[in-house]
Design a protein that fits this description.
Elements lengths: L1 H16 L6 H30 L6 H30 L24
Length: about 110
């Protein structure tokens, strides 16, 4: 999980480095999310290593206050708000280049529910 989140953070930072007309607020929020998740996962590894190997590590109370709150506010909230700003601005590419992601794919049946 840690490696996957670090890879996600790296992908976000790489995409922010590309030229484009992304809103500054969205760039700041997504950059913050990438930095926070990278740092909070170091805390998670420290805690897990301490539990598994017996060296000094933060308590669960400290982890909830740092890792938990950091992930909730600094990663999830910032990332969601940043993506929302990109979507509102129209700079988020849709899957497979589809101009309207709500339109049915060719050959797909419409739901009659």
């Amino acid at each position: 999980l840690t490696l996957a989140l670090w890879a996600t953070a790296a992908a976000v930072v790489r995409s922010l480095a590309r030229p484009g007309g992304r809103p500054a607020a969205a760039r700041a929020l997504l950059g913050t999310a990438a930095v926070v998740v990278s740092a909070s996962m170091v805390l998670a590894l420290w805690w897990a290593g301490g539990e598994a190997l017996g060296f000094a590590h933060p308590s669960l109370d400290v982890m909830a206050a740092t890792h938990g709150v950091g992930n909730a506010l600094g990663f999830v909230l910032c990332a969601l708000l940043g993506v929302r700003l990109l979507a509102r601005d129209g700079t988020t590419p849709s899957p497979a280049g589809d101009p309207d992601p709500t339109s049915p794919r060719p050959g797909a049946e419409r739901s009659t529910a």
